[in-house]
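Postdoc handover notes: sequence design on the structure in folder B. Input tokens:
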């Protein structure tokens, strides 16, 4: 067992994986001009484990062995709260961008532990043993992971077998004595360009006719037949002054194609047990939405801080409408924080001691965040002003002919010169507009499931008996 250094993590990515960027095959992701930004961002995870300021939070030591806290299987509320704190701290250091190279994979491994045991009980399979071996491999070698759950899905109103194309959901196309061969494509897979292992999970509940689509497994990212088409979204070059958050911070997403990929049996965790596909999909989501609300906390703090900062620099802190908006933003952010903590407090262990956050509270937290996100942006942009998208460039301050003019004319309240105000404006612009702001906005609505998926879970998880009984009681109905 051993923790890796940031450099060991980076070196591990030079493995001839098949990545395409804007139509060209990428030789080495660690030196590619765009993808290396994502590598650098992800290395933060390993830097935190070495930094004395964050080591205790990042690393767990048990019986003399140390491993990344992300891989600690939760057994209590305290474990979930520490996990949440770690995710929040890493995201804050990542300038509002989640790191995600261990968070999402550990979410999937926790769910795999819980559900594989249930499959084994019904079908006398040995999936749990395989999951445990894979988990030890990842934890003991301090690996990074992606999770490919979201299929391309074709016609959203149809199940896998009813689609025009049989490959719109990932499926088993061959069963061999030594393993299975899978075909299909997953989409929006985060960090695949720069992780070591890829966990594949079903994206929805399956009917009996969908058996071949009920498949879960894990493979190294460089497995033959895995083709990663990296998204160029957010790839335009940026200066630190103009885009202080996104100039150095980036995540990559890929369309992840399984072009008849062989998976050995010891890495297969579900192969045809269609009646557990829904439990597997939701089991992962239960943990992953808790990860989501944890990593949204620095983002909502940044929105509150941006509104406070711009109100001050613009000299409008005391205006009634601004105070109203600030109170709204504080309530928005702190409701999310309170619900996130409450999801851990209300969590429960299964009969084997694996602890999970409370599904109702987690989904309420995620829905609250996503449903109100654009309103939060509206308030921040309103307070900041139009210079969010019309300000000068860093070169204009450097030019002796224009620099002093800009410092004079773009100033705010007394004592605030134009260069300081523009720097603050650029941070808020990066956060709420353009490529990075747009990425955050779509991430808010869609990542970890759309708004409707969260509402569905709230309706499912809420036990209506107490409220209904009370309404009947006060109405005098038996
Ligand atoms: C930046 C980013 C990173 C992501 N990272 C990952 C990742 O690492 N791994 C991963 O697996 N996924 C990832 N996701 C995927 C994310 O979970 C999905 O975007 C989300 O589940 C929505 O799926 P979709 O994009 O296909 O949209 P759709 O499912 O097509 O949703 C579009 C609309 O259609 C509606 N809809 C869909 N199906 C139906 C239906 N049957 N009936 C009625 N309405 C329907 C939805 O409610 C929504 O309103 C990521 C997404 C983003 C944006």
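Designed sequence:
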């Amino acid at each position: 067992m051993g923790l890796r250094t940031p450099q060991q993590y980076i070196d591990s990515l030079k493995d001839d994986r098949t990545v395409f960027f804007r139509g060209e095959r990428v030789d080495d992701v660690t030196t590619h001009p765009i993808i290396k930004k994502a590598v650098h961002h992800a290395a933060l995870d390993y830097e935190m484990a070495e930094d004395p300021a964050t080591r205790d939070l990042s690393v767990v030591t048990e019986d003399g062995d140390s491993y990344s806290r992300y891989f600690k299987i939760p057994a209590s509320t305290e474990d979930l709260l520490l996990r949440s704190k770690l995710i929040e701290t890493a995201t804050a250091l990542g300038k509002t961008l989640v790191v995600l190279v261990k968070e999402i994979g550990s979410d999937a491994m926790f769910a795999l532990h819980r559900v594989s045991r249930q499959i084994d009980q019904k079908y006398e399979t040995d999936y749990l043993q395989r999951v445990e071996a894979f988990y030890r491999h990842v934890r003991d070698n301090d690996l990074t992971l992606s999770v490919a759950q979201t299929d391309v899905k074709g016609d959203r109103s149809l199940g896998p077998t009813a689609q025009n194309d049989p490959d719109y959901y990932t499926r088993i196309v061959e069963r061999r004595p030594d393993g299975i061969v899978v075909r299909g494509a997953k989409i929006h897979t985060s960090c695949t360009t720069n992780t070591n292992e890829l966990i594949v999970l079903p994206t929805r509940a399956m009917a009996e006719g969908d058996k071949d689509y009920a498949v879960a497994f894990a493979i190294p990212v460089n497995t033959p037949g895995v083709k990663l088409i990296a998204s160029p979204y957010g790839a335009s070059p940026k200066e630190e002054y103009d885009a202080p958050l996104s100039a150095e911070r980036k995540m990559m997403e890929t369309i992840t194609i399984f072009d008849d990929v062989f998976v050995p049996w010891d890495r297969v965790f579900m192969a045809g047990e269609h009646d557990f596909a829904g439990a597997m999909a939701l089991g992962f989501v239960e943990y992953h939405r808790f990860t989501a609300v944890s990593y949204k906390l620095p983002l909502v703090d940044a929105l509150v801080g941006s509104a406070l900062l711009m109100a001050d620099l613009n000299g409008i802190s005391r205006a009634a409408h601004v105070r109203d908006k600030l109170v709204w933003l504080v309530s928005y952010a702190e409701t999310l924080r309170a619900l996130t903590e409450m999801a851990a407090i209300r969590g429960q262990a299964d009969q084997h001691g694996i602890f999970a956050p409370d599904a109702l509270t987690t989904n309420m937290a995620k829905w609250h965040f996503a449903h109100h996100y654009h309103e939060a942006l509206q308030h921040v942009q309103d307070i900041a002003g139009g210079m969010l998208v019309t300000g000068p460039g860093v070169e204009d301050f450097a030019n002796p002919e224009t620099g002093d003019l800009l410092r004079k004319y773009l100033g705010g309240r007394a004592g605030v010169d134009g260069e300081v105000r523009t720097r603050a404006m650029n941070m808020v612009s990066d956060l709420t507009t353009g490529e990075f702001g747009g990425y955050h906005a779509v991430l808010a609505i869609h990542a970890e499931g759309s708004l409707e998926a969260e509402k569905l879970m709230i309706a499912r998880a809420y036990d209506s008996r107490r409220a209904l009984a009370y309404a009947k009681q006060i109405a005098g109905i038996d």
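Context for whoever picks this up: The first strand starts at residue 19 and ends at 21. Don't rerun without checking with the PI first.
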